[in-house]
Write a structure and sequence with these properties.
The chain is of the alpha+beta class. Helices cover 29% and strands 38% of the residues. Strands 1-2-3-6-5-4 form a six-stranded antiparallel barrel. β1 and β2 form a beta hairpin.
């Protein structure tokens, strides 16, 4: 059973930087939706499927998350139908080749707590009627 199937994706608009491998040069990006298992991101340039990336998210604090860029087919396989719709629709809208899914890896307790805080915040905004 894939644990990630239990993580609901939350729509967000969060500035981020993407780092490829050990390259110190940041690629500006925006996280469009997020869960404990991964995120859907729009970057300022194309990032190849399979690339190991670090995603720097700035929300109340700055945190660096390890991840791997996954294809639309992998996204389909890893997330259930309701979650896929949020991600795949964004992937298809406008056919933006700079959009991609990231599967998070090696989340320690601090990173999980950070993601939970971020997800709770945006979930409360959605419940208050804010749309992203």
């Amino acid at each position: 059973m894939n644990e990630q199937r239990h993580h609901r994706r939350i729509p967000v608009n969060i500035p981020a930087d993407i780092y490829l491998g050990q390259n110190p040069r940041a690629i500006p990006a925006e996280v469009k939706n997020i869960s404990l298992g991964g995120a859907f991101i729009e970057a300022s340039r194309v990032i190849e499927v399979g690339c190991e990336v670090r995603v720097e998210i700035r929300f109340d604090e700055i945190i660096l998350l390890q991840g791997k860029v996954i294809s639309e087919n992998e996204l389909d396989a890893k997330f259930p139908e309701l979650e896929k719709q949020a991600s795949v629709v964004k992937w298809a809208e406008g056919g933006n080749p700079n959009s991609f899914g990231v599967e998070f890896a090696q989340l320690d307790d601090q990173k999980q707590a950070f993601l939970l805080k971020l997800i709770r915040y945006y979930d409360l905004l959605m419940k208050a009627g804010v749309r992203f």
